[in-house]
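Sorry to interrupt, but I need a hand with the structure work. Can you supply me with one protein entry, sequence and fold together? No commentary is needed, just the two lines. Leave the record below and I will have a look.
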Amino acid sequence: MKVQDVMNKYPVTVAKDAPIADVAKLLVRHNISAVSVVDPENTLLGIITEGDVPHYVNVLGASIYYNGIGEYNEQFTKLLASSVAELMTEEVITAKADEDVEEVVAVMLDKHLKTVPVVDAKNHLIGEIARRDVIELIAKEND
């Protein structure tokens, strides 16, 4: 089976200048774990995942998550990030629509990915494949 047969053809996207709060709302509203970052031509620029959005504790009006001194500087830097561009991962593992699902799933398992954007030859986002899509495929095959 090919990725194009399983992928979500209408992935949720965000612009790189969007505020982090918008990403948090999208993740919750759509019950997803990642949002692809695209430009106006739908070219994939990066990805931002639920793991990139920091965990917050309100301290004197500033939100930080304290998990030891070694992690403090990284979390504080994330706190100061005001846009998606500052938090997104730019080196994104992607898939092509004509790839075998099994190959993409192997990469997802190996790299611990929950979502993989699907792009065309020009790096335009045309879909995404997520763990949920694979689970749905397994459920359908067992019916």
